[in-house]
Amino acid sequence: xxxxxxxxxxxxxxxxxxxxxxxxxxxxxxxxxxxxxxxxxxxxxxxxxxxxxxxxxxxxxxxxxxxxxxxxxxxxxxxxxxxxxxxxxxxxxxxxxxxxxxxxxxxxxxxxxxxxxxxxxxxxxxxxxxxxxxxxxxxxxxxxxxxxxxxxxxxxxxxxxxxxxxxxxxxxxxxxxxxxxxxxxxxxxxxxxxxxxxxxxxxxxxxxxxxxxxxxxxxxxxxxxxxxxxxxxxxxxxxxxxxxxxxxxxxxxxxxxxxxxxx
Length: 263
What we know:
alpha+beta, 4-stranded mixed β-sheet, two-stranded antiparallel sheet, 9 helices, 38% helix, globular
């Protein structure tokens, strides 16, 4: 494993890459990449890691030269699709399935998430798809067939795309990772979690409730301060955290556990 890949949005950073095209990334690697990315690009969107706030995820995606489109997929299980090459996608419009052409660099999100789902689900799906843009463009060149993509017979495109279903987005925490595809989806999930709830920002948020610097020494808690709170206080803090970062309850709890604020 001597090969390395240059990160598209952090061109000064290279990461090891396996022969199957999977990047070798630890939790710490992804945390670092997200922090560096937000330090470099966050100010362009009025974002500051020192001020707890929701990540302007859609603005950041489009600021990176990508396009976000919303549509109802013919397959209702699909939440998001990331096209690394120009392709034709089956979309449901007024009860009929049509094939719509999208250009490379387009992230298509289910219209259901835009219209009928909590904002936390939408934001996590956007961040997950951006994670694929951040890390996996080269992986999806030879592996697009894993997603049963149908761009239409005889249509010429390079088939570089990901298609993420309900069983994928946000579902790779705490489950066995048995294949290269599992690792790719875990990387996108963990990236999304870090991007929406950056650890430096979370630390500042938590200091309001736990000002004891011994508890919050470094970038994460050391002894699960939320778990020592009364239940009512704990739930109130998590509620505020969820609203502050515009994430789902599930995503909030998983992130707080990862950063050792919650057992």
